[in-house]
């Protein structure tokens, strides 16, 4: 079987497996990407979540010495809730980004790639295969772009002609030659809506993201969020979709044919106050199947506190005040202090004054002092 025949069979099988797009790329080093990644590191724009070794990220042969082809796949995910639960006064809700809706996409794509690998082995039993989804060393976007899945937009997302940027990406390294596809033409043109709309200005230039100021990154950190970004978080519990929702290529692009990715409205738009009461076990039971749970409950609860401040939910003050007195986590206490200062009112100020008398952590003391000062300045 020659490479062209194999390509045809794999493309057909991918469709049968429910893979929305498949493309084939050479395994040549990603030299242009290497320079961009070096500059990204030098400018302090990296998130720290990605593979730090640039050589591994840009040289497929370092991951598989005999690699000849990289197979890229894409699966479309839903971008709209059919019947979203609503926030009401005193019962406000947060939101998980669309990339965390449904079953963890790492599991979904990995299963698709495993099924495709089984099929490839049935055709070529001695083929060597290595699959990866997001957490692998290679850049999923660079592979997808080279394989003709889509172009790399100014918001750094891969944008497909069929599904916009609402796609998950994965790839498979194989030691079998398959004729490569051609990259497709950039379709962004002069549009800069994503850059203009970014709440923190993290899109510093077309295709260049300062991850350190990106809300999607900030919501995943485990530390205190710098004060200058807190108001920008809004009611986001995990991730940010702004640069995608404003993109004209995503207009009226809603796809819910992947059953595993269909969202549960109560999970992706949960009530904020109940989130703060969850134990680690309860959090895993309720949210463990979502990709947005990977950092654990602490960042989600911190973000929920920011969201309550965003809504200025005075009904949350008793619960926040109790946590400020009793919660063992300085990061959570510090964020509660800021939130109480943001929500405002006599009850909030009294709670801060009471907490100040018992607090020992310097960071939390500073947050309490700042919150009290802000409240006094409003009078």
Decide which structural class fits the backbone: alpha+beta
Number of E-state strands: 10
Question: How far is the N terminus from the C terminus?
Answer: 80 Å
Instruction: Give the oligomer, counting copies of the same chain as homo and different chains as hetero.
Output: single chain
Q: Please give the order of strands in the largest beta sheet.
A: 1-2-7-4
Order of helices and strands: HEHHEEHEHEEEHEEHHEHHHHHHHHH
Mean pLDDT: 96
Helix content class: 40-55%
Shape by Cα distribution: elongated
Number of helical elements: 17
How large, in whole angstroms, is the Cα Rg?
Answer: 23 Å
Instruction: Summarize the biggest pleated sheet.
Output: 4 strands, antiparallel
Low-confidence stretches: none
The fraction of residues in strands falls at 5-15%
Brief characterization of the structure:
The protein has 379 residues and is an alpha+beta fold. The chain has 17 helices and ten strands.
Entry keywords:
379 residues, alpha+beta, 4-stranded antiparallel beta sheet, two-stranded parallel sheet, 17 helices, 10 strands, 11% strand, elongated
Outline the secondary-structure elements:
Blueprint: H1 3-16, E1 21-26, H2 31-42, H3 54-58, E2 69-76, E3 95-96, H4 105-123, E4 129-132, H5 140-146, E5 151-152, E6 158-159, E7 167-174, H6 193-197, E8 203-205, E9 208-209, H7 215-218, H8 227-233, E10 236-238, H9 242-245, H10 265-268, H11 272-275, H12 280-287, H13 297-310, H14 317-326, H15 330-343, H16 346-358, H17 362-378
Helix pairs in contact: 1-4, 13-15, 14-15, 14-16, 15-16, 15-17, 16-17
């Amino acid at each position: 079987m020659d490479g062209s025949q194999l390509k045809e069979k794999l493309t057909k099988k991918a469709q049968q497996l429910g893979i929305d797009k498949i493309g084939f790329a050479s395994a040549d080093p990603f030299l242009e990407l290497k320079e961009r990644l070096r500059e990204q590191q030098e400018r302090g724009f990296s998130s720290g979540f990605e593979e730090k070794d640039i050589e591994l990220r840009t040289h497929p042969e370092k991951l598989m010495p005999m690699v000849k082809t990289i197979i890229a796949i894409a699966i479309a995910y839903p971008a709209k809730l059919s019947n979203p639960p609503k926030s009401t006064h005193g019962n406000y809700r947060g939101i998980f980004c669309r990339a965390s809706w449904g079953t963890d996409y790492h599991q979904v794509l990995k299963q698709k790639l495993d099924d495709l690998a089984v099929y490839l082995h049935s055709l070529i039993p001695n083929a060597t295969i290595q699959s990866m989804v997001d957490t692998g060393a290679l850049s999923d976007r660079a592979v997808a772009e080279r394989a003709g899945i889509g172009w790399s937009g100014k918001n750094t997302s891969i944008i497909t002609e069929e599904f916009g940027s609402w796609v998950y990406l994965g790839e498979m390294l194989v030691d079998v030659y398959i004729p490569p596809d051609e990259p497709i033409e950039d379709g962004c043109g002069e549009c800069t809506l994503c850059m203009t709309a970014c709440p923190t200005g993290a899109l510093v230039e077309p295709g260049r993201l300062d991850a350190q100021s990106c809300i999607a990154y900030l919501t995943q950190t485990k530390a205190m969020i710098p004060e200058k970004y807190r108001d920008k978080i809004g009611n986001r519990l995990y991730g940010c979709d702004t640069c995608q929702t404003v993109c004209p290529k995503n207009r009226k692009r809603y796809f819910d044919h992947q059953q595993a990715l269909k969202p549960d409205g109560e999970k992706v738009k949960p009530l904020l106050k109940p989130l703060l009461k969850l134990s680690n076990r309860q959090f895993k039971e309720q949210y463990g199947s979502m990709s947005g749970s990977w950092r654990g409950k602490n960042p989600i609860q911190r973000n929920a506190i920011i969201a309550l401040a965003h809504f200025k939910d005075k009904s949350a003050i008793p619960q926040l005040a109790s946590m400020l007195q009793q919660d063992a986590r300085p990061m959570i206490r510090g964020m509660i202090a800021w939130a109480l200062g943001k929500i405002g009112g006599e009850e909030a100020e009294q709670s801060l004054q009471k907490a100040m008398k018992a607090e020992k952590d310097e960071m939390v003391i500073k947050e309490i002092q700042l919150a009290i000062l802000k409240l006094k300045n409003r009078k």
